[in-house]
Structures are given as C-alpha cells and as structure tokens.
Amino acid sequence: MKKSLLVLVGFMMLVLISCSARYNTVQPVGIKNLELEPLTSSQYEIVKNVSGTATVKTFLMFRIEGYNKSGFLSSNLTSQSTIDLAKSNAIYNAINNNSDIDAMLCPKFTKEVSGIPFLYTETTVSVTGKGIKIK
C-alpha cells in the first residue's frame, strides 16, 4: 500500500513538473494611452436586440474549450478568469453573428456553471443587449 502510494505521488509530481505553457502575446500599440470619447446618441443608431452565448470548459483548472475572442477593448486577454472569458466570447459571438451591427449597448449577462469544482467545470454565459450601428 505504501509503495503504491509512493509510486502514485511520484507519478503525479513527474506529470505536474513536466507541464509547461507558452503564451505569445502582442501588446496593442498604445492601448493604455488610447483616449476614447463616449459616443453621443447622434453618432449611432440602435438596430435591434442581439444575443450571444459562449461556453468555456476546464479540466483540472486548465481550459480545454473556449477561445480568446474578445468583445471588449482590452489588452489583457491571457489572464482572464473563466467567467470573464466566457462573457467576452459571448459579446464577440453576438456581434459577429449579426453583420449589421458594430457594437452592443447595455449588455446583460446570465451565467451557468456546472461540474465538479477544480476537476471539471463548464461555464456558459449568455448575453443580450442593444445592437448599434455607428454612423
């Protein structure tokens, strides 16, 4: 029993030590210094209500499904939490699936998290909001 436990612990240490992750990121030029002025209602028109959904799955706290498609203006996509990533992906899907809109106003999110914490989780986020077209 002791020997099998020792072998199991040794195997887990070997597996965990040999894991590595490599991230290649490119910082957008000047995004931190980018000064955006809010749009006035005369600069856009509300086209329709839009919605989108995204799911992020994790196994042993590593993302196994979900992608970095951002619906937010952000320079830090690699360190997002699972829920933030799902929200960003849902906004991206809502805008991308409606070719006649440029952005979303007043996004409202609903989230559903299922699974066994730290082992396997599935986070699904849905977003609804007003789709706008910039004039």
In brief:
By secondary structure, this protein is of the alpha+beta class.
The CATH architecture of one domain? 2-Layer Sandwich
Judging from the principal axes of the Cα atoms, what is the shape? elongated
Low-pLDDT regions: 18-28
Radius of gyration: 20 Å
Mean pLDDT: 78
Q: Which fold does the CATH topology of one domain refer to?
A: Translation Initiation Factor IF3
What can you see in these coordinates?
The protein is α+β, with helices and mostly antiparallel strands and 135 residues long. The protein has a domain of 93 residues: Translation Initiation Factor IF3. Helices cover 24% and strands 36% of the residues. The chain is built from two helices and four strands. It has a four-stranded antiparallel beta sheet with strand order 2-1-4-3. Strand 3 and strand 4 form a beta hairpin. About 8% of the residues have low confidence.
